[in-house]
Amino acid sequence: MSIPRSPWVRELAPVGDLPVTPVCGTEAVAVAEAELGPGPVAWAVETCARLSDSAPAGGYSGTRGTSPQDDEAQRRALELGLLSMLCALQSGRLPTEADVAAESWNLNQRALRRGMPLAGMFRAMWQVQGRVQSALLEFLAAHGVARSPGEALALAGRLNEGMTAYLEVIQQLFKEAWERDLRQWQKNVVESKRKMARRLVEGSAKTDEAERVLGIRLKAHHVAVLAEETPGFRDLAGAALGGRGAPFAEYVHRSLAEPAARAGAQIVCVDHDDDTAAAWLTFLVPPAPDTLAALRSALATSATAWAAIGPPLFGPAGFRRSHLVALRLGRYARFHAQGQDTVFDLDSVNPAALLVDDHDFAQWFVEATLGELADTRAKIRDLRTTLLHYLASGRSLRGAAEALHIAPNTVAYRVRHAECVLPHGVERDPFAVMLALSLAEDLPELLEPDA
């Protein structure tokens, strides 16, 4: 891409009597002198010093006067920009990313990271361009570069065209660089939060550091969530977050945002592994039951294969323990999520089922304790369920009958039959029988031969 060449750029020379020392790096000065010669470079440095001294209140970037370092940074940015522009005008070639000095990238990134909006930076560029163009036209008029008014008008038009095209390209380059830098910064923030959350769970993080990185108060009530994405998430739900490959953690965060906002809760959501996300909702007061119900509802209607919700617990220890419960619930959910039943918490899962890490041992324990009651036939399943409710109700025939919606006589018959087929009856170890019955009820895969 090209612009009208301006060979007169090589005729530029400083107009003052005293030399002005450049503040930009020696490499940028050397590159410009090789392209333009020492005269134009000296004119550019002198002009930038004048522009900097006569800048509006606050400077072109809004930082003038805040510190000597900020004033010098503005002067450096002016010099780098003007030297680059003169090289483009002289050669007729618009710059590429490789032509922009690293020093210039760094200055702009520093300004953006300190809170200067990109639009503000662009306004400053256009403001400076107007002043530079006026300075160039003054020099050209004073040195008779144009021999007639018509030629002067044509030269001014070509200058405006070239400077405008140059600035548009530079702004596009800086915008793309800023977007890359922003994406990298966001990735770094997400990774920092993920590592800090893991350290909190491991118990190795300091409270004040964790609060700063995660942006939450730890002396609060925390509800942990673990969720796994559906197989088609990256093609379907991910499209709403920027296309294929959009992060699942961001989707979970958005799914929880509305009920969290209604309850005044903060959210931290990070990747847990390749296909799961971990989240924590932080409440200043214990969350009400309807808030927890709203969280369950939001997760149930989201593009998650399953979701596990830990109990609300207080403080850094609560942050950790709620997550550990969600992990246990997640292991259970991997085997039991089906249809509309995809969200699990301690109200929907027997805690005994969460204590099983060794399924082979659990299968042996159930079979050894229940004997023939570990059969998968429907008739035997009814005996197991009735005996479980009978024992859970304090051996109340009426209590079990009401829970199962059957007659007390039916309960009595089934209990007698179940006690007869138990290898050691109930009285020898009631707790073991209750535990085995609970596991068979909540983990029916333990009764399968290949479990």
Can you offer a commentary on this structure?
- With 451 residues, the protein is α+β, with helices and mostly antiparallel strands.
- It has three domains: 7-185, no CATH class; 208-349, Alpha-Beta Plaits; 353-447, PucR C-terminal helix-turn-helix domain (Arc Repressor Mutant, subunit A).
- The chain is 59% helix and 7% strand.
- It contains 16 helices and six strands.
- It has helices at 26-36, 38-53, 68-91, 102-113, 118-142, 149-202, 207-214, 248-262, 289-300, 315-336, 351-354, 359-370, 378-392, 397-404, 408-421, 430-442, and strands at 221-229, 266-271, 276-283, 304-309, 313-314, 343-344.
- Strands 1, 2, 3, 4, 5 and 6 form a six-stranded mixed sheet that branches.
- A hairpin with a 4-residue loop joins strand 2 (266-271) and strand 3 (276-283).
- The longest helix has 54 residues, at 149-202.
- The protein starts with 25 loop residues before the first helix and ends in a 9-residue tail after the last helix.
- 35% of the residues are buried.
- Mean pLDDT is 86; it is low at 62-66 and 241-245.
Quickly list its features:
single chain, 451 residues, alpha+beta, Alpha-Beta Plaits, Arc Repressor Mutant, subunit A, 3 domains, 6-stranded mixed sheet, 6 strands, rod-shaped
Number of strands: 6
Note the beta-strand portion.
5-15%
Structural class designation: alpha+beta
Tell me the radius of gyration.
36 Å
Number of domains: 3
List the helices and strands and how they pair.
Layout: H1 26-36, H2 38-53, H3 68-91, H4 102-113, H5 118-142, H6 149-202, H7 207-214, E1 221-229, H8 248-262, E2 266-271, E3 276-283, H9 289-300, E4 304-309, E5 313-314, H10 315-336, E6 343-344, H11 351-354, H12 359-370, H13 378-392, H14 397-404, H15 408-421, H16 430-442
